[in-house]
Amino acid sequence: MSASPRPVVTLGCRLNIAESEAIRQLLPASANGRDVAVVNSCGVTNQAVKDTRAAIRRLRRERPDAELVVTGCASDMDRAAFEAMPEVDRVVANAAKLLPATWGPRANMAPPRRHTRGFVGVQNGCDHACTFCAIPQGRGTSRSDPIGTVIDHVVTLVEEGKREVVLSGVDLTSYDDHGARLPVLVERLLTQVPALERLRLSSLDPAEVDDHLFALLTQEPRVMPHVHLSLQAGDDLILKRMRRRHTRAQASALSQALKAARPEITIGADLIAGFPTESEPAHANTLAMIDDADITHAHVFPYSPRDRTPAARMPQVAPDIARARAAAVRAASAQRRAQWLLTQVGTVQPVLIERPGDRGHTPAFADLHLNAAAPVGSIVNARVTAATSTHLIGTPE
Questions:
Q1: Which long-range contacts does 208-217 make (Cβ < 8 Å, 24+ apart)?
Q2: Which distant-in-sequence residues (6+ apart) come within 8 Å of 293 by Cβ?
Q3: Which of 56, 64, 79, 80 is nearest to 8 (CA)?
Q4: What would the DSSP string read from start to end of 278-333?
């Protein structure tokens, strides 16, 4: 949590991170003589809602005199419950949180930025109907920012000194500006913003990775070699009951094809453990997917039912079993990640320094600790001298 007098606490996805940066720019110096503090909430799981409530209480303790505003998906899905919290002064709808009028006329348009990367939300909402997902309730239907608006935003970030930009969205691969899809956006960014050194894409739907996008991921050096896939499970029956649009074989084939075309690519994945009706063999298939798809960056969470979703009405897996299965999938991914990190020893990696002095990420998104200080925001060529189970250690070249 930031120590700023006008903090914005962010939970959830990279799109929320991008939106929080925009909110920081819009916050007034005060509201009726009070500082403003914001919780930008997440509602993707019951645990995310609990975390949002905890963040609100913590922020109130730390900022007892501030106007505390809650926005984001969780507050949209259950507005009355958040309005009833004694710590909350105001709830702002997701659709209104990026409007200047929401925050008042005394906007601070040049706040300090917290991130060395620039996070750019280019798409919002979702038109799909995954049975476990409540996000459409909080985000609505799919809509995309115009390409020109995105380019202008990225130009501004690069001029501010950002050397890497992350494109994000609720369903990024559904980006569509009057027929211009995500690959067109990426191509135009790379062409029209030649000073942009590194471009990273957030979560991609395997069913939407077409030949055009595949070519950019595997042939364009400024597109970072880290592909995060929205897999959710490794068992075909569970995928069908989730109403996902890919099969296990298709996801595995995509991962293998990406690695064959660009060997340095790393694969990340969202995975749910303990989805309703998940059997032990189905869980074993998801575990095996870690190796089959070479998943080194897994975001794993146990299923929890969300109100008004079809999966909440399906036969449930016991919560303790779901938690144990999630722990097993995390352990398998951590082992795969540790093995991959060892292969990086002896290589030279361009590292974007993100934390004061000595920490950053490689293009393939390995956490690297330098054994010498370097300026935040710089890109340092580092020779990898060692690997732990979680990160690399390197020396500047």
A1: 208/173, 208/174, 208/182, 209/173, 209/254, 210/183, 212/181, 212/183, 213/173, 213/182, 213/183, 213/186, 214/257, 214/258, 214/261, 215/183, 216/183, 216/186, 216/187, 217/258, 217/262, 217/265
A2: 229, 231, 234, 251, 252, 255, 256, 267, 269
A3: 56
A4: --HHHHHHHHHHHHHTTEEEEEEEE----TT-GGGGSPPPPHHHHHHHHHHHHHHH
Sequential pLDDT tens for the chain (397 residues): 334 445 899 998 878 888 888 888 888 765 556 788 999 998 888 888 889 999 999 999 999 999 999 999 888 888 899 999 999 999 998 888 888 888 876 544 444 445 688 989 999 999 998 999 988 877 889 999 999 999 999 999 999 999 999 999 999 999 999 999 999 999 999 999 999 999 999 999 999 999 999 999 999 999 999 999 999 999 999 999 999 999 999 999 999 999 999 999 999 999 999 999 999 999 999 999 999 999 999 999 999 898 889 999 999 999 999 999 999 999 999 999 999 999 999 999 999 998 776 899 999 999 999 999 899 899 999 999 999 999 999 999 9
Residue 176, strand partner residues: 181
Both tokens of residue 301?
């969470």
Q: Tell me the β-bridge partners of 51.
A: none
Question: Distance of CA 126 to CAs 130, 135, 144, Å?
Answer: 10, 8, 11
Let me know the angle formed at the C-alpha of 314 by 309 and 316, rounded to the nearest 5 degrees: 110
Give me 231's structure tokens: 């897999």
Pairing relationship of beta strands 367-374 and 357-361 according to DSSP bridges: antiparallel
Of 386, 79, 133, 167, nearest in space to 270 by CA: 133
CA distance 397 to 71: 45
Task: Report d(CA 85, CA 57) in Å as an integer.
Answer: 9
CA distance 73 to 287: 30
Query: Phi and psi (nearest 5°) for 210?
Result: -90, 180
Check the CA dihedral 62-68-69-74 and report its sign: positive
User: What pTM was estimated for this model as a whole?
Assistant: 0.84
